[in-house]
Specification:
It is a single chain. 27% of the residues lie in helices and 24% in strands. The chain contains six helices and eleven strands. The protein is globular. It has a single domain, classed as Class I glutamine amidotransferase (GATase) domain (Rossmann fold, 3-Layer(aba) Sandwich), CATH 3.40.50.880. By secondary structure, it is of the alpha+beta class. The relative contact order is 0.16. The chain has a seven-stranded mixed β-sheet, with helices on both faces.
């Protein structure tokens, strides 16, 4: 556990979670990032974090889940997470925005064609009851959702650069080849995209940070 009480990843083997999380209505906003962990593992720290997330959403805190965080948020709110039946999704992919995204403040100013960086093996296969789908991709129909008015999950990585996306593609190259996909062809599609930065700035505004 870090000195300031934040969650810390120890030696790439196990997670350490503070014995006492802060009251769920205390943070001004919550961001849950990506992880090498899998929601389907059902570890105790994961379920405790999911329960806390559900409380934070109920308290009206602005919440943004990214990749693993997107999946954990969906699980916390009653959705389902499984291995992506279409296989690993890695690289830079186009998003298809749902009509609801045009009115959603997280996607304000983001218009198609919209390309984002992805790296995931599991997916949200069923949205939480009452959640609204905001975006999809060829391999994942639930790339983004909103629950209520202040909780969002995005399967893609708005924080990634093209260089980071290439590194993840190299890491997953054996898995992709086993699925009959060509990492070289996928690498050729990777490029910088302004969409991620725009989305993060939108969330910062929604959280009152800027």
């Amino acid at each position: 556990m870090a000195a300031d009480g934040r969650i810390r990843f120890d030696a790439l083997t196990s997670w350490t979670v503070p014995a006492a999380l802060p009251p769920a209505d205390e943070p001004g906003a919550v961001v849950i990032t990506g992880s090498g962990a899998m929601v389907t593992a059902g570890d105790a720290w994961m379920q405790r974090s999911a329960d806390w997330l559900a409380q934070a959403v109920a308290a009206g805190r602005p919440v943004l889940g990214i990749c693993f965080g997107h999946q954990l948020l969906a699980h916390a709110l009653g959705g389902r997470v499984l291995d992506n039946p279409r296989g690993a999704e890695v690289g830079t992919v186009p998003l298809v925005l749902e009509p609801a995204a045009a009115q959603d403040p997280l996607f304000a100013g983001l218009t198609e064609p919209l390309r984002v960086h992805v790296s995931h093996l599991q997916s949200v296969t069923a949205l939480p009851p009452g959640a609204r789908r905001l975006a999809s991709s060829e391999q994942d129909p639930n790339q983004a959702f909103v629950y209520g008015e202040r909780a969002w999950g995005v399967q893609f990585h708005p924080e990634f650069s093209a260089a980071v996306a290439r590194a993840y593609l190299e890491f997953h190259s054996a898995t992709l080849r086993a699925q009959g996909r060509d990492p070289g062809a996928l690498a050729a599609t990777i490029g910088d995209t302004p969409a991620g930065g725009g989305l993060l700035r939108n969330f910062a505004r929604l959280a009152g940070v800027v």
